[in-house]
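User: Predict the full complex structure for these chains.
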Amino acid sequence: DSGVTQTPKHLITATGQRVTLRCSPRSGDLSVYWYQQSLDQGLQFLIQYYNGEERAKGNILERFSAQQFPDLHSELNLSSLELGDSALYFCASSVSWDRSYEQYFGPGTRLTVT
Amino acid sequence: GQQVMQIPQYQHVQEGEDFTTYCNSSTTLSNIQWYKQRPGGHPVFLIQLVKSGEVKKQKRLTFQFGEAKKNSSLHITATQTTDVGTYFCAGDNYGQNFVFGPGTRLSVLP
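Assistant: Here is the predicted structure of the two-chain assembly.
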């Protein structure tokens, strides 16, 4: 158990819909990262927040957005969902804004878009 | 942009055989990390390498960072069924990008 929690575990929704994925980092960690893992693309870095502020952006689509709240939990919002958005979404946390620090991954949310 | 490649994509070995996966970056890296993801699980941090030519060992696992800091390898001696999973490298190029490789999926036949 990494100490990072993600909800929900599974999500099934239809194309065009909007969903919110939630992540609670390990106690004491200030950085939260979001990753998308699909079969053909490996782990794709989406976005990083540090202490409530956006720190780095990766290959995040405009239909996706995220935020980190004062209690440090984070939410990833996915809208106008397409079939290709079906994937595992991982959240990870670390103590520092520096991405060279060890990241602790949550169990993931499996999103299925039908 | 920065690209990180890993070979092989898949590797099947008999239990007791050795295994090596290679990671290559298109740019010089400030550091490289290795993660392991068991089937159905999440990535778990294994190690970080920072110095040129660095070699680190964890029991049967040996990690190496190339002299030019553009490549790395993970070698497992005498594989066990518990080694099954996908091994990812992740390269950081001085804060500009942090990119995961596509991973090498290892299966170990008992």
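The interface with chain B takes residues 2, 35, 41-45, 56, 90, 92, 98-100, 102-108 of chain A (CB under 8 Å).
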